[in-house]
Write a structure and sequence with these properties.
Largest sheet: 20 strands, antiparallel
Radius of gyration: 29 Å
Number of strands: 34
Distance between the termini: 39 Å
Shape: globular
Low-confidence stretches: none
Strand content: 25-35%
Length: about 850
């Protein structure tokens, strides 16, 4: 498809569906590789849609985004949104049918200088100030506006020495679709405070909601689990000593207009003004398994905290009346607790609604280290953390939505919206379509044609089911934690090693995220998709530095996600982020992948082997060919295919040609393959130390094999391809073959399952069936690649609560990831040799 190709979307019966299309990536020849597509909410319902070249159908009312003085105005015929291009009020108005539904939207932070248990925490209020505004898309089916800025302290309060400080750089994107009555808002902020004195007490978006209906016709809604709805009016007329009548009762429950007071029974009509007006409401998700609803009559009154309780709230609320109102929600609400939805002033002319990404009812966010210093690699498996367990430069996002309703939504409709908010519909293609496109390296479709292959497929699906259960059972939730798995199990304590150095949070070590994406691609399984999406969101934000001194690097696994002293490009690499970006066209992830290009310059200060090898002066920096250079290649490859800018392709070519001149090829270098690196030019330098004996166990461990499989097919450097083939052919070869090839024997020190794929690939490329078979043999000989037995249930006094575990001792997520990656690749590369 040429760049200029337009696309039309139809249902299976040929009915046109309005669609907006944009390119996401290009093939080396400039044709379109990946496209993004948006379908408006007026598109109707269809189980199957077909995309083909053609003229797209237009929506009944196109969306627009235009600049108007100091504002950007988005409109779709249903709602109009006025967005500020400067100042602290970024969302000026949301209007429906001439009625202002919301105004004065601000990003807010409550910050304190000590933790809650400090001797005297001092709290200040901050607002997000818009510094830049741009229109990224202007219709006809979707409009997108991007705002960026930083938080500044609010005036009219003690400054406490903050001066003109600007903190926590943020990005907001606003999305408006054709036919939609809602505005999607995606907020992301970079944590760049001081862990010792910056404690976020509250983080949210606040808007003002004008109210004109009588208090008895004003309604609050909160969604509960399983389709439940908590709904009450500001002035409650049910449950009184005197019955207001069925018409009034039913209207208050339904959220419709009551009969006028003159039609009420006299006792109610004459006395209702004495009833309390409930002004403030909030739903607080204080853990992954509990929320409560509270209300009060005003700031001088106490909260009634037993208005409602439940387990997992979807995160949707509503405030308004019979003439309309505002719906508001946060996705991943209970998963990223502590969250809250709060309403203040519902009894007045205007109320304030706040969507709290971090609820101020919870303990203040504490970013300090969990312990002073490091605890050693030998016992705690932890790199030295002194000064490096630093969160400055990580980020976190919140996905929100605001609805402009013409009337209070019916309870059934409200429950439907809550379900869609919590589990957003996602357009995907069939696994066969993805596979036929030849993207993401080498991977297979499921194969159950023999009992042995069925066992391998079960090993993948059963393990994913086990981890999905562990996420829930072990409570792998929370603002910073959600999306990650734990690294290694402690069978003695029947728990994951949450408190043991490098054995705690996994940070997608050894390609856990990539394995989940490959598993989704080949099956289309929704649960696997959501596990993968949550993990990629987590790794790209919490485990990756997009700013600060470690920009472009990521943190190795640790008790705190950012706590380990090893800051490496392998964790942040774009390759494992590309899956999600291309599959769902995620704009924020595109920002992150672009930010990863900073890694080149960061490596001038923080080379990955700084604590392992003595300093060198031959090159500006030093890295390992794998996983470090491979990870950088994935960053450059992604930027090249997204932009068409050949500078990034040329950096790949430069490194490939340099490696092709090294006498030892990919067996070059000590310490796992150390070579010199010049970030300014992309050149690699042979340091002439430790060839063939460097220990290359990690070189291919972080999807390095897939990075190379894909890259050598896109970047034509024959001499490098030969070097890669040579490495793959002999890395697991028997001694006699290595001696015949190199004149001596050596031990590359590699993991069997991890390198089984490159071995089989060499056999495929060189048409050597014995080498393809060797790949399978190496995989099956690795004890860690064997399928796990069924989980065992542990209860009684051995545990606090009943748990499930794999009954093989101290098992590891590394094995889960690498077993799955090997099976998925080998079935594609060497299918004839599969068992």
């Amino acid at each position: 498809m040429a760049k200029e190709t337009t696309f039309a979307l139809t249902t299976s019966d040929g009915t046109p569906v309005p669609v907006q299309t944009w390119p996401l990536a290009y093939w080396p020849d400039g044709t379109v590789k990946w496209t993004g597509h948006y379908i408006g909410s007026d598109a109707g319902r269809a189980e199957t849609l077909r995309l083909a070249p053609g003229s797209p159908a237009a929506p009944s009312t196109p969306v627009s985004a235009v600049r108007d003085g100091g504002e950007i105005v988005l409109s779709n015929g249903t709602i109009q949104v006025r967005v500020a291009t400067s100042g602290t009020t970024l969302l000026r108005e949301v209007v429906r049918d001439g009625r202002v539904t919301a105004r004065d939207g601000r990003l807010v932070i409550q910050l304190q200088d000590q933790p809650d248990d400090g001797p005297d925490p001092r709290r200040t209020s901050w607002s997000g100030r818009v510094e830049h505004a741009s229109i990224e898309q202007s219709g006809p089916v979707r409009a997108v506006v991007k705002l960026t800025g930083r938080y500044t302290i609010d005036r009219g309060q003690p400054n406490y020495g903050y001066g003109n400080r600007k903190i926590f750089a943020w990005t907001v994107r606003l999305y408006l679709g054709a036919g939609a009555e809602s505005l999607r808002i995606v907020h992301s902020f970079v944590w760049d405070g001081d862990p010792r004195k910056d404690f976020i007490k509250g983080l949210g978006l606040t808007v003002s909601v004008p109210l004109t209906d009588e208090p008895y016709n004003r309604h609050i809604r909160f969604a509960g689990p399983d389709g439940g709805v908590w709904g009450e009016p500001v002035l409650v007329l049910t449950g009184l000593r005197r019955d207001p009548g069925s018409a009034v009762r039913q209207a208050q429950l339904a959220g419709t207009a009551t009969p006028p007071p003159e039609q009420w029974p006299a006792a109610v009509r004459n006395g209702y003004q004495e009833l309390p007006l409930w002004s403030d409401f909030r739903l607080v998700q204080d853990s992954a398994n509990h929320f409560f609803v509270a209300k009060r009559t005003g700031a001088a009154a106490s909260w009634l905290t037993d208005a409602g309780h439940g387990t997992r709230a979807p995160g949707l609320g509503y405030l308004g009346g019979v003439s309309g109102g505002l719906g508001f929600g946060i996705r991943d609400f209970w998963q990223q607790y502590p969250r809250a939805l709060e309403i203040r002033g519902a009894a007045g002319d205007a109320a304030t609604v706040t969507l709290w990404s971090w609820s101020p009812t919870a303990a203040a966010m504490d970013m300090r280290p969990y312990s002073a210093g490091g605890h050693g690699l030998d016992l705690a498996y932890e790199d030295n953390r002194d000064g490096f367990g630093d969160p400055v430069g990580i980020s976190r996002s919140t996905d929100m939505e605001l609805w402009a309703f013409a009337a209070t939504p019916a309870r059934d409709r409200f429950a439907e919206l809550a379900a869609a908010l919590a589990t957003p519909p996602q357009l995907v293609a069939a696994p066969e379509t993805y596979h036929a496109a030849g993207v993401f390296g080498r991977w297979s479709l499921p194969d159950r044609s023999t009992s042995a292959r069925a066992e391998l497929e079960d090993a993948i699906s059963d393990s994913i089911e086990f981890y999905a259960g562990q996420v829930d059972q072990r409570n792998w939730y929370g603002f910073w934690d959600y999306g990650d798995f734990m690294h290694t199990y402690d069978a003695a304590r029947h728990t994951w090693r949450y408190d043991v150095g490098g054995y705690a949070w996994d940070n997608a070590e050894l390609g856990t995220d990539g394995m989940l994406w490959y598993a989704f691609l080949r099956t289309g399984d929704p649960r696997t998709f959501r596990l993968a999406r949550a993990m990629t969101r987590h790794v790209s934000e919490v485990d990756t530095y997009v700013a600060g001194r470690f920009a472009g690097l990521g943190s190795r696994h640790n008790v705190l996600h950012w706590g380990d002293g090893a800051k490496e490009v392998r964790v942040a690499e774009a390759y494992t982020k590309r899956f999600m970006y291309y599959l769902i066209a995620d704009d924020l992830l595109g920002d992150v992948m672009h930010a990863l290009l900073q890694a080149d310059q960061t490596l001038l200060k923080y080379e990955p082997l700084r604590d392992v090898l003595p300093a060198q002066t031959v090159a500006p920096s030093r890295l390992r060919i794998g996983p470090d250079w491979y990870a950088l290649v994935s960053n450059w490859l992604t930027e090249w295919e997204r932009t068409g800018d050949t500078r990034w392709r040329d950096r790949i070519v430069t490194g490939m040609r340099d490696i092709a001149t090294f006498p030892a090829g990919l067996f070059t270098g000590e310490g796992g393959g150390a070579v010199g690196y010049d970030p300014g030019t992309g050149h690699l330098v042979n340091l002439n130390r430790g060839d063939f004996n460097g220990g290359y166990n990690l070189a291919m461990a972080f999807c390095g094999d897939q990075i190379m499989f894909e890259t050598v097919d896109l970047v034509d450097v024959p001499e490098f391809r030969q070097v890669l083939l040579d490495f793959a052919r002999y890395v697991q070869a028997p001694s006699a073959e290595k001696i015949a090839r190199y004149g001596f024997n050596f031990n590359p020190q590699v993991f069997q399952a991890i390198y089984s794929r490159v071995t089989a690939w060499a056999g495929e490329q060189l048409n050597e069936p014995a080498v393809r078979q060797r790949g399978w043999d190496q995989f099956r000989a690795d004890v860690n690649s064997r399928p796990w037995p069924k989980p065992a249930h542990v209860a009684g006094t051995a545990v606090l609560s009943p748990v499930d575990e794999i009954p093989i001792g101290d098992f590891s997520t590394n094995d889960f990831a690498q077993r799955g990656l090997a099976i998925i690749a080998l079935l594609d590369i060497a299918p004839d040799e599969a068992p």
